Amino acid sequence: MNSSELRASLSLSGIFALRMLGLFLILPIFSLHAHGLPNGDNALLVGTTIGIYGIVQAFFHIPLGILSDRVGRRMVVMGGLGLFVLGAIIAASHDDLYWILVGRAIQGAGAISAAITAWVADLTREEIRTRAMALIGGSIAISFAISIVIAAPLYQSLGMPGIFWMMALLGVFAILVAWKVVPSAPLTFAPQPVGTTSNLSRFMKVLKDPELFRLNIGVLILHASQVALFLVIPSMLVNNELASSAHWKVYLSVLVASLFVMAPMLMRAEKKNRLAFLLKVSVVFMLLAQTYFGVIIFGNYQNIWTISFGLFLFFIGFNLLESLQPSLVSRFAGDNRGAGLGIYNTTMSIGLFLGGILGGAIYGNFGSLAIFEIDAVLLLVWLIIAAKMSELPPKVKMQ
Question: pLDDT confidence of 384, banded at 50, 70, 90?
Fold first, then answer.
């Protein structure tokens, strides 16, 4: 990457990570905090307050992605971050579940993931775009790992209102980064004039594209299986005498180890123009991880080392897919990348929501083995759907 591309990729991945941190950070602690609030014994209300962030995002990714194609990425990103800050302030200012729910919904309405990923695509050459998208994708895994590590200590030191105030301050900082640090788009990019192509036409063109359909189904399954997996893993670690305060050591270790494996694979596939093939290999890693977890539960082979190896397999596939898929969407969507990434991020948000709701129901009624069995079936379906994915045409280097 040249200096401008590196600055754009790092700053935008940081903004993206902030959005995901807003989703993940309260997951380990909010249900405990809610017990001390009015209506805190209403499990449906508590669950809705947690999940509203993701599901509201799902409704706004597409229109804001399309809007960013027309008015430019910076305006949409800064406006979305403004909503993120406003929602955090509302949630921080009230010890009432209904007001916190309203604040979380407003945070979710600032759904800028599609605009951010499209902005990365605008600011990078095709030959290094996958590496730039790898930073965006990796920010999701890193946000999740950071959330697991810092949630409880932050809650003990700041309380839940303090965490929301911290989110608001980080949001203001992100607005300044989007305004002053992220480079302007190159002259080859210009917002689409109003009236050139209708929003419905853009949406339908992207929606009907078979390659984009495969990627959208894929990201839904990827994140549904991710959330469902992490409903089970913490209890598996606790049952093997690893205190919850030490779980971060396992997560961080396997995450770092997986990066050393996946990075050379990604660079080689990018150089050889075999990204679609690597995507299929990545799904196989995910499928192997879920099947492996099922085997060690069924055969009672659980210990810290066997669980860690399963997580290692999972994170290789997960990190590869988070790196590959946004890049592939941006290139298959072409000039409609804002709309394409809007649909992609919508299905991602739906996957996160469904993974929590359905995963919780399956885990509660049928146990952990059922989670891994159903995840494995879903990943096998994804592998079949992805089997016919075509490789992209050779990249055209920008002069």
Answer: very high
